[in-house]
């Protein structure tokens, strides 16, 4: 047996692990045995036009328009944007602004639809046979369906499907890690819809032109692993299920690639540079529905959990359903929750208002009680270094925190502020409860604002220059017009003089009345 | 007729030549720092500093009669950039400049008569509108320079803090009891 063939017996992932990370209590058993249920159609649906990274969609309906289920209501604007479709049939009662499902609660452009309960479909998107469709056709279909990354980052999927031309891709990784505590929506989807997901995976793989597929699932989801292991091919492309250790943040794209291939994605590069593309399991399901059945992305599975919820559940919710209605469907709240989060407990965002809508990136609605939230009594940093050990990117959060608190953002930038993935491991592990990731969030926002101001300074200069040029051009045009008029007057005078000279002057003959 | 034309053009030519020669002969070199300051200033000639345009301010700043903090629309960012090339005189002039929230003009539609005065004055074309139509401010283009406020005959324009949108919102700085420099250790 040669060394080479001996080496092929091992998978790199057996030898590599991600750096740092933490092991929070899973608490997935609250909802992991609840089958996905459909929610009744709410009376009001509010669909934000910005549910994705990139430019917001442009509304294509007006007030009082009647829309059908699946009808395009927001058109993608620019290369990185996504279409928005009506989640059910009804009448548009407002195209305006409404509070965003965001910690700020600031208003964003939103289309409000009063549903008619009939849920009648409009014309569906044209279907494709992925077996003989070209990659461009598949990507165009995914773009038309408005599919974005369902793991929470909400990056338009079609952009990621078009990476084929720019990078030499060989592997598609399907992210079924779902490393956030409480969340079970991907777990349930893989258990119940494995066949559909595998078909979606195959479609994505064909669009990307990869030669192998790896489905990565954390070891705490044995049923999902078993369900996915029934398949070894997706549309003829070899597929294997890789069990990865249960550890947070395993579901981070770059860390998943690291553990599967042993290669680390360079800072500020894409995993595509390594020939690997990562898509979420939920995205694969959405792609299957779009390509096979022509259904745009108008609903998603949401985990409703936390001890503050009377009946934790996994619910298929129409995009735009108010959070309050989803909570009411799950029996309401048992007590006033300490925290109400959209997303997981580690990276999810708190919301102040339960009337905000569920959007494409909402993976969970968590009502956490006092007992489930950490206490907030902060103590001084004791330089234990646990945050640096836990940081999956290899940064030093305690030092970054000190620099940011001293208003030294440039210094924080030099030690890797922009490489932080804001996973929250540092805050989770800190024995002094120092708000490390919260401080980093602030610093990142502040830095982005400073960049924005610099950009605005340049734009101001451009606007002022444009105005000056325009004013000068107008003055020049006026001068020329004046000169022309003067020349014309001159010419007219000369013509008149010439005419007067040419015609015989009757006055010379007569001079009658003097 | 011919004589008049010839004499006038001879006069014009002679005087023009004289001016040209004088301009060359008595040319005053502008210090390069003026150009450098001019390049940093917004270049909108809005007049908020009280000097005749951005170039006027640049000259005053170069000779030390204007502080680096004079450009209010540019704010702290511009002042910090200027402080790297201009002798600020007193230390901490910029540090003392409060980090102000950017402001933008806001038009009360009830008072706007659509007179186009502000429209014509805006150095960045941030005001849109037409004659006898209510005007409006393009928030992204407005630099908060006061030029429109001065000319408005009905005092319908005020300056407001630039409204936050979801794109530029960020969390407040956490103020833990310890380590944020607010004396937690002493407590």
UniProtKB/TrEMBL annotation, chain A:
Name of the gene this protein is made from: rnfC
Q: Where is the composition biased (Basic and acidic residues)?
A: 449-496
Q: Which UniProt keywords apply?
A: 4Fe-4S, Electron transport, Iron, Iron-sulfur, Membrane, Metal-binding, Nitrogen fixation, Repeat, Translocase, Transport
Which GO terms fall under molecular function for this chain's record?
A: 4 iron, 4 sulfur cluster binding; electron transfer activity; metal ion binding
Any note on cofactor binding?
Binds 2 [4Fe-4S] clusters per subunit.
Which Gene Ontology terms describe the biological processes this protein takes part in?
electron transport chain; nitrogen fixation
Disordered, as annotated region: 449-514
- Which named protein is this? Ion-translocating oxidoreductase complex subunit C
Broad EC category: translocase
Q: Name its co-factor(s).
A: [4Fe-4S] cluster
Keyword Metal-binding on this protein?
Answer: yes
Q: Which Pfam families match?
A: Complex1_51K, Fer4_10, RnfC_N, SLBB
Classify the protein's membrane topology as the record does: Peripheral membrane protein
- What domain of life is recorded for the organism? Bacteria
- Cellular component aspect of the GO annotation: plasma membrane-derived chromatophore membrane
> SUPFAM superfamilies, from UniProt?
alpha-helical ferredoxin, Nqo1 FMN-binding domain-like
- Predominant location: membrane
Q: Which family is annotated?
A: Belongs to the 4Fe4S bacterial-type ferredoxin family. RnfC subfamily.
Q: State what this protein does.
A: Part of a membrane-bound complex that couples electron transfer with translocation of ions across the membrane.
Q: Where in the cell is it found?
A: Cellular chromatophore membrane
From TrEMBL, chain B:
| GO biological process, alphabetically ordered | electron transport chain; nitrogen fixation
Q: How does it sit in the membrane?
A: Peripheral membrane protein
Q: What class of enzyme is it?
A: translocase
Q: Which residues bind [4Fe-4S] cluster 1?
A: 46, 49, 54, 71
* Keyword terms: 4Fe-4S, Electron transport, Iron, Iron-sulfur, Membrane, Metal-binding, Nitrogen fixation, Repeat, Translocase, Transport
4Fe-4S ferredoxin-type domain spans which residues?
A: 103-132, 133-162
Q: Where in the cell is it found?
A: Cellular chromatophore membrane
Residues annotated for [4Fe-4S] cluster 3 binding in this entry: 122, 142, 145, 148
Q: What Gene Ontology molecular-function terms does this entry list? A: 4 iron, 4 sulfur cluster binding; electron transfer activity; metal ion binding
**Cross-referenced InterPro entries:** 4Fe-4S_dom (IPR007202), 4Fe4S_Fe-S-bd (IPR017896), 4Fe4S_Fe_S_CS (IPR017900), 4Fe4S_Ferredoxin_RnfB (IPR050395), Elect_transpt_cplx_RnfB/RsxB (IPR010207), RnfB/RsxB_Proteobac (IPR016463)
At which positions is [4Fe-4S] cluster 2 bound?
112, 115, 118, 152
Residue ranges occupied by any 4Fe-4S domain in the UniProt entry: 29-88
Extract one GO cellular component term from the record: plasma membrane-derived chromatophore membrane
The ranges of region (Hydrophobic) come to 1-23
Name one matching Pfam family.
Fer4_21
Q: How is the cofactor bound?
A: Binds 3 [4Fe-4S] clusters.
**Record-listed E.C. numbers:** 7.-.-.-
The cofactor named in the record is: [4Fe-4S] cluster
Extract the PANTHER family matched here: ION-TRANSLOCATING OXIDOREDUCTASE COMPLEX SUBUNIT B (PTHR43560:SF1)
Q: Which family does it belong to?
A: Belongs to the 4Fe4S bacterial-type ferredoxin family. RnfB subfamily.
What is the role of the protein in this entry?
Answer: Part of a membrane-bound complex that couples electron transfer with translocation of ions across the membrane.
Oligomer and partners: The complex is composed of six subunits: RnfA, RnfB, RnfC, RnfD, RnfE and RnfG.
Please report the name of this protein according to its UniProt entry: Ion-translocating oxidoreductase complex subunit B
């Amino acid at each position: 047996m040669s060394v080479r063939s001996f080496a092929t017996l091992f998978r790199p992932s057996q030898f590599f692990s991600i750096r740092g990370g933490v092991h929070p209590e899973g608490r997935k058993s609250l909802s992991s045995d609840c089958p996905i249920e459909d929610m009744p159609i709410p009376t009001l649906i509010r669909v934000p036009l910005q549910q994705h990274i990139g430019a917001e969609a442009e509304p294509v309906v007006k007030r009082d328009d009647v829309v059908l289920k699946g009808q395009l209501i927001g058109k993608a604007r620019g290369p990185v944007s996504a279409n928005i479709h009506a989640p059910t049939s009804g009448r548009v009662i407002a195209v305006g602004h409404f509070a965003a499902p965001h910690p700020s609660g600031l208003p964003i452009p939103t289309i409000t639809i009063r549903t008619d309960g009939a849920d009648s479909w409009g014309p569906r998107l044209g279907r494709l046979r992925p077996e003989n469709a070209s990659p461009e056709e598949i990507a165009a279909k995914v773009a038309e369906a408005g599919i974005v990354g369902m793991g929470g980052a909400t990056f338009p999927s079609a952009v990621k499907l078009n990476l084929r031309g720019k990078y030499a891709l060989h592997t598609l990784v399907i992210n079924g890690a779902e490393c956030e505590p409480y969340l079970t929506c991907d777990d349930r989807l893989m258990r119940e819809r494995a066949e559909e997901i595998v078909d979606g995976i195959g479609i994505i793989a064909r669009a990307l032109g990869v030669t192998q597929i790896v489905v990565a699932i954390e070891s705490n989801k044995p049923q999902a692993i078993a369900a996915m292991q029934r398949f070894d091919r997706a549309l003829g492309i070899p597929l294997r299920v890789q069990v990865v250790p249960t550890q947070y943040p395993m579901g981070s794209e770059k860390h998943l690639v690291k553990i599967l291939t042993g290669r680390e994605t360079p800072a500020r590069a894409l995993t595509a540079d390594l020939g690997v593309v990562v898509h979420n399991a939920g995205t694969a399901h959405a792609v299957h529905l779009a390509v096979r059945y022509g259904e745009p992305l108008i609903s998603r599975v949401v985990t409703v959990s936390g001890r503050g919820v009377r009946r934790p559940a996994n619910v298929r919710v129409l995009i735009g359903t108010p959070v309050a209605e989803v909570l009411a469907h799950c029996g309401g709240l048992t007590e006033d929750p300490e925290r109400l989060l959209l997303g997981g407990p580690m990276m999810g965002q708190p919301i102040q208002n339960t009337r905000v809508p569920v959007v494409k990136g909402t993976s969970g609605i968590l009502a956490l009680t006092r007992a489930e939230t950490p206490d907030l009594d902060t103590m001084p940093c004791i330089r234990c270094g646990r945050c640096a050990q836990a940081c999956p990117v290899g940064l030093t959060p305690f030092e970054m925190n000190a620099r940011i608190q001293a208003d030294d953002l440039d210094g924080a930038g030099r030690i890797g502020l922009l490489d932080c993935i804001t996973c929250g491991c540092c805050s989770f592990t800190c024995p002094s409860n120092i708000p490390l990731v919260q401080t980093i969030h602030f610093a990142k926002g502040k830095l982005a604002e400073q960049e924005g101001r610099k950009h605005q300074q340049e734009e101001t200069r451009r606007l002022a220059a444009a105005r000056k040029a325009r004013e000068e051009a107008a003055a020049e045009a006026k001068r020329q017009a004046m000169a022309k008029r003067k020349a014309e007057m001159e010419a007219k005078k000369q013509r008149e003089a010439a005419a007067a000279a040419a015609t015989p002057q009757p006055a010379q003959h007569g001079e009658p009345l003097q | 007729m011919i004589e008049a034309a010839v004499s006038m053009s001879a006069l014009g030519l002679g005087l023009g030549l004289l001016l040209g020669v004088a301009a060359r002969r008595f040319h005053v070199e502008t210090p390069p720092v003026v150009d450098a300051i001019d390049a940093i200033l917004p270049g909108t000639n809005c007049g908020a500093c009280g000097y005749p345009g951005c170039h006027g301010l640049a000259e005053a700043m170069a000779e030390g009669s204007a502080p680096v903090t004079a450009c209010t629309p540019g704010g702290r960012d511009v002042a910090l950039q200027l402080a790297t090339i201009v002798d600020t005189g007193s230390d901490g002039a910029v540090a003392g400049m409060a980090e102000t929230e950017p402001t933008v003009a806001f038009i009360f539609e009830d008072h706007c008569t659509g007179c186009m005065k502000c429209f014509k004055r805006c150095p960045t074309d941030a005001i849109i509108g037409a004659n006898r139509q209510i005007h409006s401010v393009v928030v992204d283009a407005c630099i908060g320079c006061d030029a429109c406020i001065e000319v408005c005959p009905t005092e319908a324009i005020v300056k407001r803090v630039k409204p936050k949108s979801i794109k530029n919102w960020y969390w407040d700085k956490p103020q833990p009891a310890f380590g944020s420099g607010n004396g937690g250790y002493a407590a």
